[in-house]
Write a structure and sequence with these properties.
This protein has about 425 residues and is of the alpha/beta class. Helix content is about 50%, strand content about 10%. It has a single domain, classed as Rossmann fold, CATH 3.40.50. It is globular.
Length: about 425
């Protein structure tokens, strides 16, 4: 039957439909924008606030907190943070995996920076002669693939665990904590892992440093690896982790040690140096999480913390499946699997404790650290920006900054960085 779309009734119906569509679109846009602002500013208020000196370090001020506004359903509140997280990792993936040259073999000497680097990514500033375009011959597709495959095979073979090493436990504040000891000697190096990972991620470095005459201790912090996993946030603050490190040194009967770590472990090492300066002989700080990392860290961990609450059932089923995966004896992969096996409530406790507690020592406290320090950072990592490593190297009077080629270099092609760390450990103990 023919219907006249130009009648008053039809026109009103079309206008009402158009109005509803516009309202829905504006609601989605406003809800997404508000969700982003509230997520970022609430997290910054909770994380940066206790630090008290974000403006001094970054030479700028944060905007004031945004009052909470109705944001619609939970899905809308999570949409923008999750999309931003995926997009940021997509960007970071440009250098997440080192190229075939890095995998095949690292340069003989590390790219060391002074404590006040120019922070330039121009290859001409590195002092390396890269030649003209005519001098550089690009391999064909087949040769390129073969080189990459050969590099991956060599890296995987080198990453397989090298035993023996000792595994032991000790008790502190009612918690039973796990640690490993690689090598022997008086030069003690204590290394800490990243958040949600475990000591396995540092096993390759520990074995290499043991070959250079050091005694390397790897600790599983509370809530990680094979240590006990308390489900209250107070046990997972950075300062509480620092007290655990000192308790391990007391358990081992070690007066002084070089303390280091990656990401979370790097920040804990800084706290140990601030709170117990006499127990530290030097610092190895890889990928510190400081002021410039706060917004990105919030975008990564706040949605994960929310997911452990609203999607506990599916996450628990996923972790149960991950616990069925066999060990690969490739320590880095096993550390990743260990993170996937964690119960959502345990993950929530760790994230909650880290986010609500102080994330890093204040700038004034950092400047008071006079130990020798080796700071390692790399570019294009949205959670560990190179600016944080560069600023930390300027703040620590005895620091040297070294730029890694990628986030994975020390785990996949570690020869260059391992030599730099081994030389630093020897020099730091000589000074001590």
């Amino acid at each position: 039957m023919y219907q006249d779309h130009h009648t008053p009734t039809a026109r009103r119906r079309d206008q009402q439909s158009t109005f509803r569509s516009k309202c829905t679109g504006m609601y989605l846009l406003r809800g997404s924008k508000t969700a982003l602002l509230v997520t970022v500013h609430r997290t910054l208020a909770g994380i940066v606030g206790p630090m008290g000196d974000f403006g001094e370090s970054c030479e700028g001020a944060l905007p004031g907190p945004v009052p909470a506004q109705p944001t619609g359903r939970t899905g809308l509140r999570l949409l923008v943070p999750v999309a931003t997280l995926i997009g940021s990792w997509r960007l970071a993936g440009a250098r997440l995996w080192p190229g075939p040259t890095v995998l095949a073999g690292a340069p003989a000497s590390p790219r060391l920076h002074p404590v006040d680097p120019a922070d330039s990514s121009d290859p001409a500033d590195s002092g390396t002669d890269i030649g003209t375009h005519a001098d550089r011959i690009s391999p064909g597709p087949l040769e390129h693939c073969l080189r990459r495959a050969a590099g991956v095979v060599r890296a995987a073979g080198a990453a397989v665990e090298r035993r023996p090493f000792d595994e032991e436990w000790f008790d502190v504040d009612g918690l039973r904590l796990h640690y490993e000891t690689h090598g022997h000697g008086n030069r003690v190096v204590l290394l800490l892992h990243g958040i949600l990972f475990d000591s396995q991620m540092n096993r390759r470095l520990a074995a290499d440093l043991a070959d250079h005459g050091s005694r390397v201790v790897l600790l599983d912090l509370p809530g990680h690896g094979r240590s006990d996993k308390p489900r209250h946030a107070a046990a997972h603050r950075m300062d509480a982790y620092a007290d655990v490190v000192i308790a391990l040194l007391d358990h081992l009967g070690v007066d002084r040690a070089i303390v280091g770590g990656v990401s979370l472990g790097a920040n804990v090492a800084l706290y140990v140096a601030c709170r117990n300066s006499d127990r530290v002989a030097g610092l190895v700080v890889e990928m510190p999480v400081l002021e410039w990392a706060v917004p990105s860290a919030a975008m990564a961990f706040v949605p994960l913390l929310v997911a452990t609450r609203v999607a506990r059932g599916p996450l628990r089923a996923f972790s149960a499946t991950a616990r069925r995966l066999p060990s690969t004896r490739v320590a880095v992969l096993d550390s990743i699997v260990s993170a996937l096996r964690a119960d959502p409530d345990e993950v929530a406790a760790v994230l909650h404790g880290v986010l609500v507690g102080p994330v890093a020592p204040t700038v004034a406290d950092r400047r008071a650290i006079h130990h020798r320090a080796l700071v390692i950072g790399h570019r294009l990592d949205f959670i560990h920006p190179f600016a944080d490593a560069a600023h930390l190297a300027r703040q620590l009077p005895g620091a040297t900054l070294i730029e890694a080629n990628s986030i994975a270099e020390l785990r996949i092609a570690p020869a260059r960085l391992t030599k730099a760390i081994a030389d630093f450990v020897a020099a730091a103990w000589d000074d001590a």
